[in-house]
Amino acid sequence: MNTRVRSAAAVLLSAAVSAGAATLSSADIQTNGMTVTVKGTSLAVAPLDVSRGEKEIQLKPGKPGWRGPVYTPGTAWRFGAMTAGSLKARVGGTVLKEGVDYLVDYDWGTLGALPGSAWSGRKITVEYTYTASRLDLAVEKDGRILLIQGKPDSGTPLLPKTPAGAIPLFSVYLPHNTTALSSDNINILDLSTKRHGGYTGREFIEPKLNKLAKGEAFTFAFLGDSITAQTDPKGGGFVERFRDWARGEYKNVKYVRMARGKKAAPVSPATGRVAIVMAGVGGDTSVRGLARLDDHVLVHRPDLVFVMFGVNDENRRGNGNGVPPDQYEKNLTELVTRIRGGGGEPVLMTTSMKNLKWEATVGNLDEYASRARKVAAANKVCLIDHFRAWEDLPKQGYNYMILLSSCINHPGAMGHQMFFQAIRALLEGE
Description:
The chain is α+β, with helices and mostly antiparallel strands. The chain contains 10 helices and 23 strands. Helix content is 22%, strand content 26%. Residues 1-21 have low confidence and may be disordered.
């Protein structure tokens, strides 16, 4: 086993202890302001530190949002980090008026000049406040309930470690600018929950796994969008993590990375060789995946093809989804048929989550996960349920937004580790 990959497996739930968590229900926990009361014990939650930013910028025209037009330091790509109403703009001693001279999107920490603004294109100075986010951990030790304060982070806070001899109970998630708590901030731990969503239908890929076990030439392919193609400085994207693990398991590993418009010679089969074809392309939907299936995947005569689409299919287009759920289901079914027709066996994968407050999402990504499960069941296809794992994140003390490195739809290191863990568990029959 690749030791770097194995060590990363412990990142997600740093609060885990062998004793397991005590049983609690939501009725046992009350919130009032920044105080949490559990079984008669009141725990004061420290407020988030407030930082101040000041920057001279060029005010550009345009409606502010996730695309800009002007980003502010400390808040860019940190959804909700800027304190609502805090931004003030001036030129020398002249104070500009929000809503007259400029607009601010406080969720994205961006601003832009209104049409007709006299200050459009000019240098202005902006001042504002913002906060980090944090995860605290409530534990029980020696009959007492204690709160362990976590380390503030710009967007991806981790649970603090559980003290020796203590039992973790629940986490308190403080997203940016939290000033009062509710039940939404409380995540009751269930340490029996898997760190991945599990899988179904492993029996459908058993013949392929037997071939792999015999040391015959074998090709894995990963077909998807930018999440499949994604790299990460903290260990790589999930395909890269899988590649690194495979290099520790098999002597001869060949890695092929496809790109939009790229055609490659078929991977040459060789006894004992394991080929890995990364066929993720940014922005792709299931429609585009079908269009390039032959050139990017089937040309390599893969044995197992991991398919993950849906994040871009779900994106808003007009009043609905870019690729509606019914069409998505048909596309997955066709992918299954064509992959099998090419001699491979598909493994469908549900997606991770994305920011439900992002203006480009409809908010029904769960429907796409349901359709993937439906296609898998109807066609006797193996399925890895990543979406289920993300739904279960609160049981591990985490909010799904913590795992989104872009604050939109791209997972960070923990998210990619979860993807990899699920794939490895499937192959190893865990």
